[in-house]
Amino acid sequence: MDLRLRHLAHLDPQAVALPHGTEIVTRVDRVHGERVVPQGTVGRVVKIAGDELDVAIVGVGTLRYARRELSPRRVGQVLWAQRRETAWNALLPCVVLDAVVGSRAWGLASETSDDDRRGVFALPLPWTLGLVAPPEDLVREDGSATYWAAQKAVRQALRADPNTLEMLFVPGASARDPIGQWILDARDAFVSVEIHGSFGRYALGQLRRLEQGQRLAEHRGVVLDWLRRERAPALDEIATRLAALSPRAAPSQADAVLQAKQYVKQLYRSLFDQGLLEGADFASLVRFAREAAPDLELPRELRPKNAYNLVRLIATATRWLREGQPTFEVDGALRDRLLAIKRGEVPLDDVIAEAEAMAPELDRAREASKLPPRADVARADALLRRIGEEIARRHVERAPGPFGADAPRPPEVVWSE
Hints:
about 425 residues, alpha+beta, CATH 2.30.30.40, Beta Polymerase, domain 2, 3 domains, five-stranded antiparallel beta sheet, five-stranded mixed beta sheet, globular
């Protein structure tokens, strides 16, 4: 049985929103400096300004297009974008808890910082009863606001998820409905020594992954430079030379060369998936290095913003474990250092060394912490039951508001043709 939402039956790719991060294909030629960026170029939406979108194109930069000049790259993206937009418009009145998070809550904002929001919404009773699985997330088109369904938010908080606990405990968290206040009143139930792992040790692990990612990004540049500057060497020759540079340990020289060869294959497959190569093969990689602009942007996960946030997580976890209360806003020398990392003034190797030096204090704070060892699942369960019963009561009594008389209609389903 194939059921689909009625409003998804006949989608126009030119009518749906293109959320932040969507891969697109350009529908017009565009002149950028002395270069023509042809129709059919693949890019990614990085900013939305009304009916205009900024699109990052690898090797070119960021260009602005009108919405009509872009199409989503994949059909599945059209369905996903439509579902997301429909859910946002229908269920936004059902948000019960809202908070400003991110750099503005941490005291690390600049004039260009985004206004990031997170919160919780509750599902009207009819949305939970039919064949269509209700959404668990509401995400604004530009990605600046995310709201989780109450059950998902509670599950995340029980795991000591940093984003969820921050949303619950930042000073500006505000309830839009009594249900939201119930959640705030119960937030202590989610606090435990588990933040040692979910905040601190998680951040240390991610920083080590950034270090490995940085090495891979450096290797990418080296490989493209070799292919661009020299008579095209064969794949085996590139792998042998790359193995000599790689810090990755291998049982033997043959294993090191095999690892390097696998990396080159991953490189051209990744570039092909991004629409930068005409084929997923080594010959296409050689042509790209020689004919296209090979200066690729740094992968998003390696940007300084990610490194400084991970260091902040370690500091936040240490203080919370030690003092028993969270403090998300940073000040003093730590604030100055985090801002320097954010501006890219501190090499990643130095950031990782500093984070490693923070690990012993993090572990000592866990050992001495008075926080409970685990979250209070009984209180969390009681909270969700109370919310469910209240939603049912408002629905049955047709109470005013988005959970009763004014509830949004749930999506309809029909047989597919």
